[in-house]
Amino acid sequence: MYAQKANAPTRKPVTVPSLRAMKAEGRRIVMLTAYDATFATQLELAGVDIALVGDSLGMVIQGHSSTLPVTLDHMVYHTSIVARGLSSTLLVADMPFMADRDVPHALEAAAQLVSEGGAAMVKIEGASPHILEAIEALVERAIPVCAHLGLTPQSVHKFGGFRIQGREQEAADHMVAQAQAVEAAGAALLVLEGIPTALGERITRAVSIPTIGIGAGPHCDGQVLVLQDMLGITPGKRPKFSKDFLAGRDSVAKAIAAYVEDVRTGAFPAPEHCFE
User: Fold this and answer.
1) Which residue among 133, 193, 201, 276 is the active-site one?
2) How confident is the model at residue 225 (pLDDT cuts 50, 70, 90)?
3) In Å, what is the CA distance from 252 to each residue of 92, 257, 258?
4) Which pLDDT does position 118 carry in this prediction?
5) Which of 39, 100, 119, 179 could hold 106 in an S-S bridge, CB 3.0 to 4.6 Å?
6) In 3D, which of 247, 151, 250 has the Cα closest to residue 196?
7) pTM across the whole model
8) CB neighbours (10 Å) of residue 134?
9) Is 136 within any annotated ligand binding site?
10) Which residues does the entry assign to the active site, renumbered to this chain (predicted)?
11) Helix-strand-coil percent breakdown of the chain, rounded to 5?
12) Which among 140, 49, 147 is positioned nearest to 95, based on CA atoms?
């Protein structure tokens, strides 16, 4: 899948079918962001299942206040350098803001992320009709898609900030319907961000594809964090749903290994990392 750069224990490459098998077998999926080859290698060594090159790089790498300034060229570049640090870990790349504005643009952006960046899957936010059309078009062309619902960062202005979503019954019901719609459109994975624990559990039960939570409670099929949040090095206040895994440990490698272990065993997220 990717050029081998890390002396990681031999393991089978993580694939779209193997993620579905993990959900069926109750094995928790570990996802973590990465933005360069060095940290990607550390994810590989720790046995992380999925490396996400998130447009969160706009905030933690570029210093912006949101993900909106990130361009397709930025995403292709960072995806390509992360790919060089991986061998078995599945590589997912975010579709940046407005790359999904219509089907032709979505196809072109995804093609670049896959062919030039080396991604095995692309992530797309929302479930509006044009997004569902884009998911269908991508899947028809054999490009796996990870959907993203809840607190979708590219909609920060619409939400009026980074606010928890789905607390009202009507909004929760709507999100369940959205989750089922993205699955029907062909999405193979679903990230749920910033929603109440009960809704995370409800959606996970309502779809057959794996769910990956970030501030969505412990009942999702897996968890994801932004690497810098997980290491406790993000400037300012750390998000409630995150945990500093570097605290009390003397290396990045040990912090990532602890995160992997806690996700696998269900120790993370704990109640203090969740929303009601």
Assistant:
1) 193
2) very high
3) 22, 9, 10
4) 98
5) 100
6) 151
7) 0.93
8) 28
9) no
10) 193 (proton acceptor)
11) 40, 15, 45
12) 147
- pLDDT > 70? residue 246: yes
Give the dihedral sign, CA 23/83/41/34: negative
Reference 79, options 110, 113, 45; nearest CA is 113
Q: Give Cα 94 to chain centroid, integer Å.
A: 8
CB-CB contact of 187 with 142 (8 Å): no
Model confidence band, residue 1 (pLDDT cutoffs 50, 70, 90): very low
The annotation status of 55 as a binding-site residue, yes or no, is yes
Told to judge if 193 belongs to the known catalytic residues of this protein, a careful annotator would answer yes
d(CA 149, CA 242): 18
- DSSP track, 61-126: TS--SSSTT--HHHHHHHHHHHHTT-SSSEEEEEPPTTTTSSHHHHHHHHHHHHHTT--SEEEEE-
CB of 46 closer than 8 Å to CB of 260: yes
Give the pLDDT score at 5. 52
Structure tokens at 213: 């939570």
> Which residue do the tokens 């936010």 mark?
125
Q: Are 204 and 221 in contact (CB under 8 A)?
A: yes
